[in-house]
Amino acid sequence: MSDKHPSFGRVPPDEFRKAMESGVPTASNILRKFEPTFGLPAGTEKKEYKVRFYRTATTEERATEIIEAYSQEEAEALANQMDHDNLDWSYSSSGNADESYVESVEEA
């Protein structure tokens, strides 16, 4: 079964109707969602664009160190004083992205 409507091509009838009821710039934008070359001069070529993405993620990481101390409390206090960035962290690849979006788009 084809995804094209016999009268409107790839444009769903309700979207085509919405385009016809709006002004030219809005109609062009609606139709370009389904037919990217609509209204462009013949021979218009695609361009390359560099797109930057940004994502923040939450991961769970674990590190284990051996600390010499006289008590559990002292070991915890010493651990809190350590530079945690220098620990040998291991993490799971199952972290989830909290948020992601396109940061910028520019012609390549």
Write a structural description:
The model has no long low-confidence stretch (mean pLDDT 82). The chain folds into two domains: 34 residues, no CATH class; 62 residues, no CATH class. It is rod-shaped and about 80 Å long. A two-stranded antiparallel sheet has the order 1-4. It has a two-stranded antiparallel ribbon with strand order 2-3. Helices cover 26% and strands 24% of the residues. It has three helices and four strands; from the N terminus they run ααββαββ. 3% of the residues are buried.
Regarding quaternary structure, how should these chains be classified? single chain
- Anisotropy-based shape: rod-shaped
Major sheet attributes: 2 strands, antiparallel
The tally of helices reads: 3
Q: What is the radius of gyration?
A: 28 Å
Low-confidence stretches: none
> In order across it, which strands form the biggest sheet?
1-4
> What is the total number of structural domains?
2
List the secondary-structure elements in sequence, H or E.
HHEEHEE
Q: Could you estimate the helical fraction of the residues in percent?
A: 25-40%
Strand proportion = 15-25%
Number of strands: 4
Structural class: alpha+beta
pLDDT averaged over residues: 82
The N- to C-terminal Cα distance equals 38 Å
